[in-house]
């Protein structure tokens, strides 16, 4: 292959059996000589076709060159620290399902990292076609420890400690260390069979056998025992439910100063913009539980629906699973967005380098950025101008609004520039057209902005 024409993906370098690269605008996976026998069995056994038919792995096609396959490229890939509880749980169940299905085809899933999973059409989908290898008699599931670190441990911490524990993934991209998870889990989990076996005792055993004075042991397992392990893990993960934590904005649209007519007008106006633009991608910042994401989904190829509230993102995922499969939920704090992490800070890209849309919505958001986040107006303008390729809709909420008064209760009002004229003037520096649309019987204004 011509090295000038090939661009390797920065995140694809750990696997000796293959790597992902781009050539002439196409996304491909190279199959190295080390991985060729496994991949040929993956195809010949019927496992690849079966998983694609069921929508469990990213579709690919053979190119006629045994050293490569062409992959379907996903528009936007999220990372585990951007997921809700339900997304992580479903990604875990997908991983176990793939491992169990591989076993029935005399193969085994050798990797169980959460970063091998993305979301497509409202469901998790597996990315790494090179993770399937031929199963040898007596071979245990070597990815078990990785599964616990990437899925079970964070799920247990989210359930028994706090939903926000998922954010630890940013610091532990190799998975949650078992001793770390064991120490954080409450004492009651020592009396629960699955946390006890898979986290607490696992951590103790790991500590024991990590000693330089302790002889390394090699384990073997019959296929039926591997199958039993996978089934028991799936049963436990399926039983996990998110805690009923109360969050600040999960019930925003049932606790605001909108009347029925106000909201009806706002929804109709957003629908008009979405219908006229018919964007390939809409980004809904501060999406809350998805009221406007659902409207945008009718006219958009994909809606990236981002919110800071874990409960809201869980509701967005339910929306994607049940009604709008083109909605992709993202857990996002705009004051501290997902950074670039991993080796050379290139393995996992930052949020803004991954996400742009033809339409960007910022409804009931900008006043939070200005007042709670203390963003200058120029930063707010740059956010909406840099993220869109065509248009943005931003809602201006004045100081006299009850939601802004709520934000100002515990802080000094130093936001003299938070006036409609100043905000419109700031947006006009980056946008060619700035329409101001008053919301009837309200002091709120929709700003329709076009580049």
Quaternary organisation of the protein chains:
single chain
Please name the CATH architecture of the largest domain.
3-Layer(aba) Sandwich
How many strands in all? 16
The gyration radius over C-alpha positions equals 24 Å
- The assigned structural class equals alpha/beta
What would CATH call the homologous superfamily of the largest domain? Vaccinia Virus protein VP39
- Alpha plus pi helix count: 15
Stretches where pLDDT is under 50 for at least 5 consecutive residues are none
Describe how the helices and strands are arranged.
Layout (H helix, E strand, L loop, with lengths): L5 E3 L9 E6 L2 E6 L4 H9 L2 H7 L6 E3 L5 E4 L13 H20 L2 E3 L7 E4 L2 E4 L5 E3 L9 H17 L17 H7 L8 H17 L13 H17 L20 H18 L3 E5 L5 H7 L4 E6 L2 H13 L4 E5 L19 H4 L2 E6 L3 H7 L4 H11 E9 L5 H7 L11 H9 L4 E6 L6 E6 L1
Parallel strand pairs: 10-11, 10-13, 11-12, 13-14
Antiparallel strand pairs: 1-2, 2-3, 3-5, 4-5, 6-9, 7-8, 14-16, 15-16
Helix pairs in contact: 3-4, 3-7, 4-5, 5-6
Any overview of this molecule?
With 451 residues, the chain is α/β, with parallel strands linked by helices. The protein folds into two domains: 160 residues; 199 residues, Vaccinia Virus protein VP39 (Rossmann fold). A hairpin with a 2-residue loop joins strand 2 and strand 3. Helix 3 packs antiparallel against helix 4 and helix 3 packs antiparallel against helix 7. The two termini are 41 Å apart. The mean pLDDT is 91.
